[in-house]
Amino acid sequence: MTETKTPERAQPEAITAVPVRHPGRWVAIVVLAIVAAMFVHMLLTNDAFQWQFMFDNMFRPPVLQGVRTSLTLTVLSMVIGVALGVVIAMMRLSPNPVLSGGAWLYTWFFRAVPRIVLLILFGNLGILYGSYGFGLPFDRQLGDLVGIDLNARLFSLDARTILTGFMAGLLGLALSEAAYMAEIVRAGMKAVDPGQQEAAHALGMGRGPTLRRIVLPQAMRVIVPPTGNETIAMLKDTSLVAFVPVTNELFYQLQAIGARTFQVFPMLVAACLWYLALTSVLMVGQFYVERYFSKGFGTGQEKARAQAENVAHGH
Amino acid sequence: MAAGSPLLQMERVNKHFGDLHVLQDVDLEVDPGEVVVVVGPSGSGKSTLCRTINRLEPIDDGVIRLEGRPLPDEGRALARLRSDVGMVFQQFNLFAHKSVLDNVTLGPIKVRGQSRSEAERRARELLARVGVENQAHKLPAQLSGGQQQRVAIARALAMDPKLLLFDEPTSALDPEMINEVLDVMRDLAAAGMTMIVISHEMGFARSAANRVVFMDGGRILEAAPPEEFFASPRTERAKDFLSKIISH
Ligand SMILES: Nc1ncnc2c1ncn2[C@@H]1O[C@H](COP(=O)(O)OP(=O)(O)OP(=O)(O)O)[C@@H](O)[C@H]1O
Ligand SMILES: [Mg+2]
User: Fold this and answer.
1) What is the pLDDT at residue A10?
2) What is the rounded CA–CA span in Å between residue B185 and residue B153?
3) C-alpha distance from B87 to closest chain A C-alpha (Å)
């Protein structure tokens, strides 16, 4: 197409920009403003909140100790959960049917049982055995079989010493987290182009080194965003160990103050504020970690997909 | 290995994918220093043939020998076999998270146990040989397809393979990059590297191949020197195939 030459080029008319009107938006803003004002009014005037009481009590030493316990639980159960999850994911992808079957069973069990049930169950494991021994498995039975009094326990511990509330809570959270992490890691490893594994095999690298050096590092950018969300979810779920019970944990402590002083409601609000504050800090951390891992790779689309996967997988 | 005996022997090799009989009684011998170009219609089993040679695909029946020894089934022996047989893929398959240099040194360091300095010195030599020496610190995604494939060739060469397999090394490349890769392959052929190349680049086959092998329906139907194969194919299938690829 050729442009026809006009002897006098007409000046284009100045564009009169009319902003697009959004009347609906204004209505919504007004409605939201009214709702917010009502909410603030209620916060300030309703006596049930007991703000002064709440602020006086939400920073007491046992509560701060509770914050520490909850953070420790979060970190430890995530570390164990991620490590175990990687192992289970590798087992799940193994050609050996015993390994992959075992891994499947594990994830099935720990994803199917609600965390709260699991935690209370772990809190009551002391009922099963008075003591837990470490040594040759089935030593007594083996000894009976050959007719000698064999005791190959290397050492044994009273159930109440190892399965303190804290340990039971940690074990419950970590084992259940491992199941979710295994699924995340597996999804990440499957997202890596199979040609990468083939090329590594063709160089003569075995299965283990190939997974460790080639597949896992490339799976990281898929694994990291949902792992951040898992960490935040874990921090919230540490409140569940109050039912194990773990007595020096944040939620338990706040509730205890509420129960003792008959001021239950302000302490529940305090719990909300504490968890809001702590998870917000984690979210900031998550932002920077994700930005680091998507460097050089990240198209926004992929990140969005990973996040959508994670939302879909919710507990 | 006695002088004059073949480097690779395949005898009555059979392979199925479920009901599909992809390789049917395949016999093939490749002598040291020989360059064999494999041609044939899509789905005829060329890639599968190539992949059975370093056992990326197991076979159901028959024997494959490298230097007279049957291919090991698994474990360390299999890893050693694979490290002796280099493979270059259609999609390059460079390790996406590693620099060009690390791609080339990974095998020598982790599989051959070379020191990093030794492996890097050799890698730089090889990168220079394929003409990408100044890209050593880039990630694969920052290179053109032709450069990536040349790095992939350097990666395979770094293992000092006895045999190099190429599965359509130029099919994923833009036309202007095909020759830079073929030139590298011609140099290798001239330097005496034993190669099995799946490729429909007739110019390469004519200039570099000792033999052209024609496959169809999982069978090797013809094997002849290139001038003979292209000038007077013996089977109807081969004639038909050649008329199709030459017509456009
Ligand atoms: N892993 C697999 N599982 C099942 N079928 C397969 C598998 N790999 C290949 N096939 C089938 O085996 C046949 C031969 O495939 P192959 O890749 O060896 O052919 P090819 O000659 O390399 O073809 P092309 O020129 O298209 O690359 C095809 O019909 C293909 O669909
Ligand atoms: Mg193919």
Assistant:
1) 61
2) 9
3) 6
Cα–ligand 2 centroid distance for B49 (angstroms): 9
Phi and psi of B204, rounded to 5°? -65, -45
**Among all ligands shown, which has an atom nearest to the Cα of B39?**
1
Dist CA B164 CA B221 (whole Å)? 23
Run of H or E residues at B209? none
B94: closest CA of chain A, how far (Å): 7
What pLDDT band is residue B199 in, cutting at 50, 70 and 90?
very high
Spell out where chain B has E strands: 8-17, 20-30, 35-39, 61-66, 69-70, 85-88, 163-167, 195-198, 211-216, 219-224
Say whether residue B151 is in contact with chain A using an 8 A CB cutoff. Answer: no
The answer to whether residue B54 neighbours chain A at the CB level (below 8 Å) is: yes
Per DSSP, the residues of chain A read --PPPPSSPPPPPPP--PPPP-HHHHHHHHHHHHHHHHHHHHHHH-GGG-HHHHHHHTTSHHHHHHHHHHHHHHHHHHHHHHHHHHHHHHHHT-S-HHHHHHHHHHHHHHHHS-HHHHHHHHHTGGGT-SEEEEESTTHHHHHHHHTS----EEEEEEHHHHT-HHHHHHHHHHHHHHHHHHHHHHHHHHTS-HHHHHHHHHTT--HHHHIIIIIHHHHHHHHHHHHHHHHHHHHHHGGGGGGTT-TTSHHHHHHHHHHHHT-HHHHHHHHHHHHHHHHHHHHHHHHHHHHHHTTTT--HHHHHHHHHHHHHH--
Q: Is B93 within 8 Å of A206 when comparing Cβ atoms?
A: no
Inter-chain contact A202–B54, Cβ cutoff 8 Å?
yes
Going from the Cα of B46 to the center of ligand 2, the distance in angstroms, rounded, reads 6
Separation between Cα atoms, residue A175 and residue A113, nearest integer Å: 11
Q: Which residues does chain A have with pLDDT short of 70?
A: 1-12, 126-163, 294-315
A:B CB pairs within 8 Å: 58
Res A312: pLDDT: 46
Q: Determine the distance separating the centroid of ligand 1 and the alpha carbon of B44, expressed in angstroms.
A: 7
From B203, B147, B140, B145, select the one nearest B174 (Cα to Cα).
Answer: B145
Ligand nearest to the CA of B23: 1
Please choose, from the candidates A232, A233, A200, the residue with its C-alpha nearest in 3D space to the C-alpha of residue A216.
A200
Residue type for position B192: G
Is pLDDT at B78 greater than 80 in this prediction? yes
User: Which ligand gives the minimal distance to the CA of B167?
Assistant: 2
Complex confidence, ipTM = 0.92
Question: In terms of CA atoms, which chain B residue is nearest residue A294?
Answer: B97
Q: Which two tokens stand for residue B133?
A: 């020496």
pLDDT of residue A118: 93
Pocket test for ligand 1, best of B16, B21, B48 (most atoms within 8 A of CB): B48
Rounded to the nearest whole angstrom, what is the distance from the C-alpha of residue B173 to the centroid of ligand 1?
A: 20
**Report field, pTM of the whole predicted structure over 0.80:** no
